[in-house]
Design a protein that fits this description.
The complex is a heterotrimer of chains A (about 130), B (about 900) and C (about 210). By secondary structure, chain B is an alpha+beta fold. Chain B is about 40% helix and about 25% strand. In chain B, the strands form seven sheets. In chain B, strands 8-7-6-11-10-9 form a six-stranded antiparallel β-sheet, with helices on both faces. Chain B has a six-stranded antiparallel β-sheet with strand order 14-13-12-17-16-15. Chain B has a five-stranded antiparallel β-sheet with strand order 2-1-5-4-3. The chains are: A alpha/beta (about 130), B alpha+beta (about 900), C alpha+beta (about 210).
Chain lengths: ~130, ~900, ~210
């Protein structure tokens, strides 16, 4: 069964860049995309998603709000927040929702830790 | 396959097996290879090492077991160029292979240049399975000092080097370099840096703490530089500051340019830069700047083919642009009138040659004003190809306007001359101001009719008369001074002198005079009325001040008298009722009021007479501690007292009594400023003051001071109150509630102590007063205070007392009686002289100084005629005599100032009589 | 004999400039990672001007149209951050940030989108770093791309107040080898100078810190 990663970002460029970095680390993963929080929920309701990488600053609900909702529904799902908004407060909020903080611009180097951690976690037996 | 165990650690077991499967046959060859080899697994986080060979162990000092499982970059150090690392990553991502020289670190901490070559080994699906890296030590190619090696590779460093070259070129080889290790917060500097900074060369090379970077910086620039360096250490990339450093008393300008280097996570690791001595350049720049600004000359430099030109600030100003260092040529030329030649001509690349000069009209970009400019420049062919056009522009509007006006003037010259002459005659004849022309000999050549109108002298009398002969004797020196300057052709400020009228009265005349050829032209205006008003104003201000002072004094004294009289009255009642138990309370209150009155008169005298201060080395911390209780009582419960003294506080030189009273006064002011309560902080710290810090002080000199701060959290002062805070008699309290002497006395005391006072206050923000007292250079010696006086009993010696005030006389007699002396009392010289001239035994004369008829001093003189060895003790309430003690007293005479304590009087009398035995 | 009050303003300016220097350095680092090229920065400049004055400043330096990505921010202080460059550089910048990821046609199509994201990343890093240095938090609007001759960059859409005085801070950047240059600029309102001063004083204490 392949792993599906959902990339949520209102910027197409950002989705391309993140997608590219993920693919080069995990070529086998299936990528799906969403442009905002509501679209993301629609995708998740429609198909299984294993990993989510989301933007913070989006029209409508922000990334943290979405992350909190997803965390409530999927306690073990690997979720990353990718943003250039490196304010301590945002980093702390991400941490308290058990969400990995990834600094934009997203590079292969920058996201490697999250992706390999996620891959490892998915390999463990699911509770 | 004995060596393959290197690859089979538990952590990498899976990878090891896969590696064996893929590269089995090669592994043995690798093990034996003399080239250091490492294999990493790109599929895992941080790309861990899964295999190293023996040569790797030998090169790096890490055994296989220590290296396996570590991230691929574990040999890198903080000094490894991050760009080079990024470049390797990029090359690998793109083509799967990379080559680079990077700085690595052995296990023993030694660094080496590693020429590494990386290739990616792909699995059957073409995905990266392993990376194979060979490592070669090429440090010998990077021989030279370590700093140079590290500066060598990256492009960023090239830019640095270019910048360094620029600075070096600008200042003819005077640049020094530094490098700041942010983790340890130490910087390393080369010999040139050390010499500019006045640092020890070896110490600078070995690394110095941050303080050494800031310490030599001029105090006025230090904080700016610290902020800028602080920024750099927190990640600001660009550092550029010109500042002054002071070494061995000499001030030099330096230019520091630096750059901060970040690691891959954007954390600052290193802050490096160059420092150049630009003292000479600065002077030239300054001169150039002044010349350009004063002359209104703007300069520019343009390289053909570019869209922008380098321009000076004044250039921008002349065209009405905001100051900039470069402007697009299009923008520059857009302000020029379309019919006139452009300022910078480069149409179609056609650029002139040689000298160029032209004039043009412009419309200023900011105000829209039309101006004339001239542009003068030179075209030069550059060695590197292309042409530069360097030049200046300046405003010629005035000249252009003058030219036009001159033409008009010439055309109508004759009629104008006629008109002007009439106009001038009219002014001459009708003016109410005195007009005159004075020749080089000081005599008046002509005067206008106003002279006669004002002073009554006829024109015939005035012409040929020296001006000096009309001037009030007191004003003659000023007139002579001014005339002499005018005759030398100098301009002089306006001056006021009095001129005598024919009727003998004087008129104040304010003069404006100019030299012209050999003569002086003067215009005088009668300002007598104004002078009178000014005098009246001054007088009334003085009266107001005196009124305020006396009102305040009367209030204070009335309060104290109420305390004394009320207390005494209560004592009398209690005594008459036989209730003696709480008499002490009222006596204490009366004593206190009396002492306050004494203190007030003392302060008044101090203020008016500038009494001598008893300056001595003081431990300020101890002094503040000793009055803390008193202050707390004064401040009341609503105000919290905080004492915050630097434990290393120097000792100061001052008069302790004066300082105590200053602090008490400040505390009282602070209390009154905090009607709702608050906090009063008395702090002490050491301060070094420069001459500019002391610009407002009369007598203080640059050096070490002890600063005593008194800060309240009260109402603060409005700026207009603050401006007058130190003026004598100025008070914000209602009339009659204070003398307004407090702050001005403190000011006087501190100035007299060669210190300084600063006051900072904002409305609603509280007030801070800072007293600066000069530091005491030596150690503190405990000046022994006179021990408490223990008056021993007399043996019937005879004392003649002369005192016209019955109350004081009563007191003195009482003391003498209690001490066992016999007293003869007299009220003045008339009563005393017969006794003095009799055979009556007299052992001591105690006399008031101010007496009706003969004063005390004269009386003593008389007494000494018949009793040359008679000791005399004067009592006086005037401090003036105390100051003149040396002149006033001769041998065997002493003085005691009123008011005095009973014990003190007894002690003095006792001492005198014992000495004479 | 009037007390002299220490002229703090110069130091405050210095400190503010330094704060922006730190933020903008971080922004440049982000841009560097996006384009994979060296990004050079000038010394930052700070001016107190009217909004119109700020616009004039940019217009005088740029003879043609400019493109800007703007992001408004609010918090203990508020204002607007902009990434500005000549319009002629716009496509080159888009190509630089998209790299080999998409085709040239896609790049042209994605132009505004890519500019917005670039601005978003660059300005967010700058503002967030500054907020962290001040230990305050800021909320930032979504990025918006504007094309203009420079005059309307600093207009307030909301209330049209033109003549208020603002703090204008800017830094020039150039991308090596690509002939792309521009500005990172920031406009700060001065609703509460006092509050800002307190923050600056704290900031000074923090950066000057223990090196006494």
């Amino acid at each position: 069964m392949t792993t599906t990663v959902l990339i949520v970002d209102d910027s197409k460029l950002a989705r391309i860049v993140i997608g590219k970095a993920v693919s080069s680390l995990q070529p086998g993963w299936t990528r799906v995309e969403a442009g905002n929080a509501d679209e993301a929920i629609t995708v998740i309701d429609a198909r299984p998603v294993d990993v989510v990488i989301l933007d913070y600053n989006m029209p409508g609900r922000d990334g943290i709000a979405l992350a909190e909702e997803l965390r409530a529904r999927f306690p073990a799902m690997p979720i990353a927040l990718a943003t250039a908004n490196v304010q301590d407060e945002i980093v702390a909020r991400a941490r308290s929702a058990d969400v990995t903080f990834v600094v934009k611009p997203v590079t292969e180097e920058g996201i490697r830790g999250f992706v390999s951690g996620a891959a490892l976690r998915l390999r463990l037996p699911q509770p | 396959m004995t060596e393959t165990s290197r690859a089979l650690s538990p952590a990498t077991g899976h990878a090891g097996t896969a590696l064996m499967a893929m590269a089995g046959p090669w592994l043995e060859a690798m093990d034996q290879s003399g080239v250091a080899i490492a294999v990493t697994d790109p599929g895992l986080a941080d790309e861990p090492i899964v295999y190293v060979n023996g040569a790797f162990e030998a090169l790096t000092g890490f055994a296989a077991a220590q290296a396996l499982g570590r991230p691929s970059n574990f040999l890198q150090t903080a000094a490894t160029d991050p760009d080079a690392v990024l470049a390797i990553g990029a090359a690998l991502a793109q083509g799967g292979s990379a080559r680079a020289d990077i700085l690595n670190q052995r296990r023993d901490g030694e660094t080496f240049w590693n020429r590494m070559s990386v290739v990616t080994i792909r699995d059957t699906k073409g995905l990266p399975a392993f990376r194979l890296t060979t490592l070669t030590d090429v440090s010998h190619e990077y021989a030279g000092d370590v700093t140079a090696q590290e500066l060598r590779i990256s492009r960023r460093d090239l830019i640095e080097a270019r910048e360094r070259l620029r600075v070096v070129q600008a200042v003819a080889g005077a640049a020094g370099g530094w490098e700041w290790d942010i983790a340890s917060n130490r910087f390393f500097a080369d010999a040139r840096f050390a010499s500019i900074y006045g640092l020890d060369v070896l110490a600078a090379a070995a690394g110095l703490p941050a303080t050494a970077f800031f310490e030599p910086i001029h105090a006025e620039d230090r904080m700016r530089v610290r902020i800028a360096v602080g920024g750099a250490l927190h990640g600001a990339e660009v550092f550029a500051r010109d500042y002054r450093i002071v070494t061995e008393g000499e001030v030099r300008w330096v230019s520091a340019r630096g750059r901060t280097f970040l690691d891959a996570q954007d954390r600052p690791v290193k802050f490096a830069g160059v420092l150049a001595d630009i003292t000479g350049q600065k002077k030239i720049e300054e001169r150039l700047h002044i010349a350009q600004t004063a002359g209104g000359v703007g300069s520019f430099e343009y390289l053909s083919g570019y869209g922008t030109a380098e321009v000076s600030e004044q250039f921008c100003r002349l065209l009405g642009f905001r100051p900039a260092q470069s402007l697009p040529v299009r923008t520059i030329n857009s302000v020029v009138h379309p019919d006139d030649p452009a300022i910078i001509q480069n149409r179609d690349g056609a650029i002139g040659s040689g000298q160029a000069f032209h004039e043009c009209r412009i419309t200023r970009a900011d105000t829209g004003e039309a101006r004339w400019l001239a542009s003068r420049g030179e075209y030069r062919r550059e060695l590197s190809g292309g042409m530069t056009f360097t030049g200046v522009i300046y405003d010629i509007t005035q000249t252009k306007n003058s030219e036009a006006k001159l033409r008009q003037l010439t055309e109508r010259l004759e009629e104008r001359v006629e008109a002007r002459t009439q106009e001038r005659d009219r002014i001459w004849n009708l003016s109410r101001d005195l007009l005159n022309v004075i020749g080089p000999d000081g005599t008046q050549r002509t005067v206008n009719p106003a002279w006669t109108a004002l002073l009554g002298h006829s024109e015939a009398e005035l012409v040929g008369m020296p001006m000096a002969s009309l001037v009030h004797a007191e004003d003659l020196p000023l007139l002579r001074l001014r005339l002499a300057a005018l005759l030398r052709g100098e301009t002089v400020p306006d001056f006021d002198i009095r001129l005598r009228a024919k009727d003998g009265g004087y008129h104040w005349v304010s003069w404006k005079a100019v030299p012209e050829g050999e003569a002086i032209y003067g215009i005088g205006r009668d300002v007598t009325q104004r002078k009178l008003l000014e005098d009246q104003l001054r007088q009334s201000q003085k009266m107001e001040a005196v009124g305020q002072l006396t009102g305040g004094l009367a209030h204070d004294f009335n309060n104290m008298l109420t305390g004394i009289l009320g207390g005494m009255d209560m004592v009398r009642r209690r005594v008459s009722q036989g209730r003696l138990d709480d008499v002490d309370r009222f006596l204490d209150a009366a004593m206190q009021s009396g002492q306050r009155a004494a203190a007030l008169t003392h302060r008044l005298l101090a203020f008016s007479r500038r009494q001598t201060l008893d300056n001595r080395p003081l431990d300020i911390t101890a002094l503040v501690g000793s009055i803390a209780d008193l202050l707390r009582r004064t401040l009341g419960e609503q105000v919290e007292l905080v004492v915050d003294m630097d434990p290393e506080l120097w000792s100061a030189v001052a008069d302790d009594n004066q300082l105590e009273s200053a602090l008490l006064n400040l505390a009282i002011n602070a209390r009154d400023a905090m009607p709702e309560g608050g906090r009063l902080t008395i702090s002490g710290r050491n301060a070094k003051l420069s001459a500019s810090d002391l610009a407002h002080s009369d007598r203080a000199e640059a050096g070490d001071y002890v600063e005593i701060g008194v800060a309240d959290t009260g109402l603060g002062m409005a700026p207009e109150v603050l401006a007058k805070a130190f003026d004598p008699f100025y008070t914000t309290k209602p009339l009659g509630q204070g003398t307004g002497l407090g702050l001005s006395m403190i000011y006087g005391f501190v100035q007299q102590s060669r210190g300084n006072v600063l006051i900072e206050s904002q409305e609603g923000q509280g007030t801070t007063i800072r007293l600066f007292l000069p530091r005491h250079a030596g150690a503190l010696t405990d000046a022994a205070k006179p021990a408490s006086i223990d008056a021993s009993l007399g043996q019937g010696e005879v004392v003649l007392v002369i005192e016209d005030d019955p109350a004081v006389r009563l007191l003195v007699l009482q003391v003498l009686e209690e001490l066992g002396y016999q007293a003869i009392e007299t009220a003045d010289g008339r009563e005393a002289i017969p006794i003095l001239q009799s055979q009556q035994q007299i052992d001591l004369l105690v006399s008031d100084v101010g007496l009706p008829g003969l004063n005390g001093r004269q009386l003593a003189e008389l007494a000494r005629e018949t009793r040359p060895t008679l000791p005399v003790l004067f009592m006086t309430g005037y401090a003036k005599e105390a100051i003149d003690q040396a002149r006033f007293l001769t041998a065997g005479m002493e003085i005691i100032t009123k008011p005095f304590a009973v014990d003190e009087l007894g002690h003095r009398i006792n001492m005198i009589l014992r000495q004479n035995k | 004999m009037i007390a002299h009050v220490i002229p703090l303003e110069d130091l405050e300016r210095d400190a503010l400039t330094e704060l922006v220097n730190i933020g903008m350095s971080r922004a440049a680092s982000s841009l560097r990672k996006m384009v994979g090229e060296q990004v050079l920065l000038s010394v930052p400049a700070l001016e107190v001007v009217t909004r119109g004055g700020a616009a004039t400043l940019i217009r005088e330096r740029e003879s043609g149209q400019v493109v800007a990505v703007r992001q408004d921010f609010e918090g203990i202080f508020s204002g607007r951050a902009l990434l500005i460059f000549p319009e002629a550089n716009s496509l080159a910048l888009v190509r630089a940030v998209t790299g080999g990821a998409i085709s040239a046609e896609d790049a042209a199509e994605l132009e505004d989108e890519a500019l917005a994201e670039t601005g978003n990343v660059v300005l967010n890093s700058c503002l967030a770093t500054m907020a962290n240095m001040l230990q305050q938090s800021l909320t930032m609007s979504l990025p918006e791309v504007i094309r203009s001759d420079g005059s309307s960059l600093f207009d307030l859409v909301e209330n049209g107040v033109e003549e208020g005085v603002v703090l204008f801070l800017y830094i020039n950047f150039a991308i090596n080898d690509r002939n792309i240059r521009g500005y990172i600029a920031m406009l700060m309102d001065l609703p509460s100078l006092e509050a800002l001063r307190l923050l600056i004083a704290d900031f000074i204490r923090r950066v000057v810190g223990d090196e006494t």
